[in-house]
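Here is the promised in-class demo. Please do not try to memorize the tokens; focus on the logic of going from shape to residues.
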């Protein structure tokens, strides 16, 4: 049975407010613009979660930027955590050879997605490759990742909003919030499919007790 979604009341607490996000985006945009002064930049983002961050960040950068988008999916559940296998659903449209590339992510969790993407993009011979993420959840890291620009470092909580989903919803919230445990607990109790949906909620966080 589908439990009705209530965008606001399904969120237990606002973790990063809209104002905090927008201030951080401006700060990151200014830092990036200064660091790459006199150059042009290619922003590569990963659908779907990074969409709002990418859209805001690109407008906070004062350099000439090109953008490209990829979409990847992990090879399901627990196996993914150990194997780190990632499937490319949508590849880059253009070449990034000899370009300064900034990979823009919404969240780094285990780091497996980014670890794969960095190796993949390096293989395309960019002049440089750096990483910018809005959120970093280091408690969940399985592989070491060097992040060049981080918006907010957060605890291991189940977060939604500003691109991050649970069961594909909540991405349109203007802030990042902590999802009420009852929301994913009810899905986990509703059958295999729902439980899997709870496990692969798009912020990459696995609800406590399900690992
Ligand atoms: C999220 C996020 C990162 C990845 C991070 O994407 O956008 O790409 O998970 O997790 P990791 O560090 O454990 O690899 P997701 O696969 O949920 O897809 P979505 O962006 O379409 O929601």
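The designed amino acids, position by position:
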């Amino acid at each position: 049975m589908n439990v009705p979604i209530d965008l606001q009341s399904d969120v237990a607490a606002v973790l990063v407010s809209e104002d905090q996000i927008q201030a951080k985006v401006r700060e990151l945009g200014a830092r990036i613009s200064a660091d790459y002064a006199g150059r042009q930049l290619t922003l590569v983002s990963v659908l779907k979660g990074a969409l709002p961050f990418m859209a805001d960040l690109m407008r906070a950068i004062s350099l000439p930027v090109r953008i490209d988008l990829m979409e990847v999916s992990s090879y399901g559940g627990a196996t993914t955590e150990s194997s780190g296998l990632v499937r490319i659903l949508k590849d880059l449209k253009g070449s990034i050879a000899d370009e300064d590339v900034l990979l823009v992510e919404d969240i780094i969790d285990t780091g497996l997605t980014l670890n794969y993407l960095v190796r993949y993009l390096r293989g395309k011979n960019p002049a440089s490759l750096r990483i910018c993420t809005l959120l970093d959840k280091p408690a969940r890291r399985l592989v070491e990742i060097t992040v060049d620009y981080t918006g907010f470092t957060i605890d291991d909580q189940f977060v939604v909003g500003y691109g991050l989903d649970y069961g594909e919803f909540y991405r349109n919230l203007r802030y990042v919030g902590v999802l009420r445990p009852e929301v994913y607990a009810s899905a986990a109790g509703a059958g295999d499919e729902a439980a899997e949906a709870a496990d692969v909620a798009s912020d990459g966080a696995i609800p406590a007790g399900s690992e």
